[in-house]
From TrEMBL, chains A, B:
Residues 190-230 are annotated as: Disordered. This is PadR family transcriptional regulator. The keyword Coiled coil applies. It comes from the Bacteria. Keywords: Coiled coil. Residues 12-100 form the Transcription regulator PadR N-terminal domain. Residues 132-173 form a coiled coil. SUPFAM superfamilies: Winged helix' DNA-binding domain (SSF46785). InterPro entries: Metal_resp_DNA-bind_regulator, Tscrpt_reg_PadR_N, WH-like_DNA-bd_sf, WH_DNA-bd_sf. Signal peptide: none annotated. Transmembrane segments: none annotated.
DNA sequence: GTTAGCATGTAAGGAGTTACATGATTTT
DNA sequence: AAAATCATGTAACTCCTTACATGCTAAC
């Protein structure tokens, strides 16, 4: 019952697909990697993790155990962690499968504001045609919205005061801007080129590798004096 | 208890301040005038109206007087449920006072994403210094956010795949754009110049001049074949 | 004479938040 | 030794949505 999280569930599965993590770190990642769009609290994260485990999509590994028997402790400050986690969550095969299915399911939800952001964040794990469907779906959704806004504006212009008008103007410009962004992305996908920030002021010094495939990274997670949502 | 709506309550009071309305129209206005930011359904609107009445901020006026040709037909159940009651909601003195207080209360809520949009929509009913506080509060909120995003990006750049990176880049640009917009608005407020008076032919790009507090248009509201949220 | 739009509501529930409660480990 | 941060959780509540239920009135 309950906990049918849409976005949170999706994001958790997606992050855990990349590597196992415990709740605390998961939450930090949620609020930085995808955090522009959404911020989550423990109050929603932990219950969500719980039900994902219940459904068999995650396993818990209590690795805080072993209070008694402890022969060698060479792994303490050896390589990566340094910190030990209490409960490490890990994606099961079923969970992976489920996430894959969610990824390829391009229902009309997929282009709603918040859904779209999270989906985009996991585009690296999707096939190109799914990406295209989502990008185009999102774009036409925004174009619909634009049309309505224009119509509404034409009808009611006289009755609105300057601030309301300015608000609407700015809102429309934002939407137009996102449409242009999407169009660029779609074009990039279509021509099969790699993703490169085009009109940016400061082009990232990064060589884009393979856009179609594996985000394969796992290094030592650095101490990370990470932020919290203010 | 319950129904402590933040945004919806505020918006309803604000719209009713301009003129009395019944629920159906109210909802349309909510979803067009302020609709870029929020969409509300009847399921939240009507209960909200109810509690606002309970608190003495609104009055209901059951429209019963339907002067039709057949004089006997209308008074079947005249007082309470005439013909399918059309209820016009109207702001009371207390409600007006309460709204005024909400307007001038520039707590740290006022610059959160959705709150800000709705507040801005009613800027015409506020004093200049309140407007300034809200605009500047919003801007520094966004600048904080930008700083965090930059820091987080610098820390994690290598671990992110191209799509996540692009998402973050676009998000940051959006925020930067809003900051520039706010800066312009603040400047306009500060210099106090009201650009064009607005009664000449077609002033192309409109800036919010000084609304001075008066949105005093109320004419015959045209039939309005208005849209619904798709 | 039936669809389409106007108009008002309710019950159930979804998706999250806040505030609380607790304790371990590191840093100062 | 105190403060900060890491780490996990729960209960109560908020605010809104969906789906349902009803009925009027204009238009095609």
């Amino acid at each position: 019952m309950s906990r049918r999280s849409g976005i949170l569930e999706f994001a958790v599965l997606g992050l855990l697909r990349e590597s196992p993590m415990h709740g605390y770190e998961l939450r930090k990642r949620l609020n930085t990697s995808l955090g522009v769009f959404r911020a989550f609290s423990y109050g929603s994260l932990y219950p969500c993790l719980k039900t994902l485990v219940e459904r068999g999509w995650l396993t818990e590994e209590h690795e805080t155990a072993a209070p008694s028997q402890e022969g060698e402790r060479q792994d303490r400050q050896a390589s990566l962690t340094g910190r030990r986690a209490k409960i490490v969550y890990k994606l099961t095969a079923a969970g992976k499968e489920h996430f894959e299915e969610l990824l390829s399911h391009t229902g009309p939800d997929a282009w709603e504001d918040e859904h779209f952001g999270v989906r985009f964040a996991f585009f690296g794990q999707t096939s190109r045609d799914v990406r295209m469907r989502v990008l185009e779906g999102r774009r036409s959704r925004l174009e619909e919205r634009l049309a309505k806004m224009r119509a509404s504006l034409a009808r009611t212009r006289e009755r609105l005061d300057d601030y309301t008008l300015e608000l609407q103007r700015h809102g429309m410009e934002s939407v137009e801007r996102e449409v242009r962004w999407l169009t660029e992305l779609i074009e990039t996908e279509r021509t099969g080129r790699d993703l490169e920030a085009g009109d940016d002021a400061v082009p990232p010094p990064r060589r884009p590798g393979d856009a179609g495939g594996r985000p394969r990274h796992r290094g030592g997670t650095p101490p990370d004096p990470s932020d919290d949502t203010a």
